[in-house]
């Protein structure tokens, strides 16, 4: 192998700087969260301990951390389920052109370019004018769907664009009904993509701030609670919270990836046994 060109080292240095810029703040917060009981919000650290992690599980005077976490978790699961179901239905519907399909497609994509705070304001005003409760499970849920559904639909459009209809034709030739074809042929084939859409839906909802700001009502989700803590918390407990939520996010990603790998292994095992 010959000597590497100079451009290789330049690109390696740029990539290293990018990784440091991307993960440096997270690593810094994780380190500061292990400060001793007398620790502050900056370096140098004053000892090391798990004091601030224990403090998270005690009665907090700074806010409803675990209530906010529970609301974000429930909201994320609600958004995930609806995003998966509607994305699959939309992907199936858009396989054939219909009247107004182009306008409907661009209308859905427009939600991605509208400033999130304006969406939050509009949804909040709409619910208020209609006499409906402005609540994280109603207006907050609707506002977040305007963010997650376009991503889910775009993924499903790409998946069904490459989907071979010969599989469905073979199932129908064997006497399968339309529902049986979808359940036993289409869904198993696109299952890895469904996991990706579910992961997108949950993670985008779990850390969404702007579209929830004016639609959550009087009960904060976790991003809103963390933002509120930045104005009145002067101890590393906020760093401990950030570390735990980061670990939780990576755990969720690991669960979804593990599910995708398990399904892929199961499919290969079935194919090898035939």
At a glance:
The chain crosses the membrane at residues 7-34, 73-92, 104-127, 147-164, 185-206, 237-262. This protein is mainly alpha-helical and 274 residues long.
Q: Unreliable segments (pLDDT under 50, ≥5 consecutive)?
A: none
Count of runs of 4 or more consecutive helical residues = 11
Report helical residue fraction.
over 70%
Task: List the secondary-structure elements in sequence, H or E.
Answer: HHHHHHHHHHH
CATH topology (fold) name of the domain at 63-232? MetI-like fold
Distance between the termini: 44 Å
CATH architecture of the domain at 63-232, please? Orthogonal Bundle
* Radius of gyration, CA atoms, in whole angstroms: 23 Å
Instruction: Estimate what percentage of residues fall within beta strands.
Output: under 5%
CATH superfamily of the domain at 63-232: MetI-like
Largest sheet: none
Average pLDDT reading: 87
Number of strands: 0
Judged by helices, strands and strand pairing, the structural class is: mainly alpha
| CATH secondary-structure class of the domain at 63-232 | Mainly Alpha
Shape: globular
GO biological process, one term: transmembrane transport
Protein name: Inner membrane ABC transporter permease protein YdcV
Keywords: Cell membrane, Membrane, Transmembrane, Transmembrane helix, Transport
Family: Belongs to the binding-protein-dependent transport system permease family. CysTW subfamily.
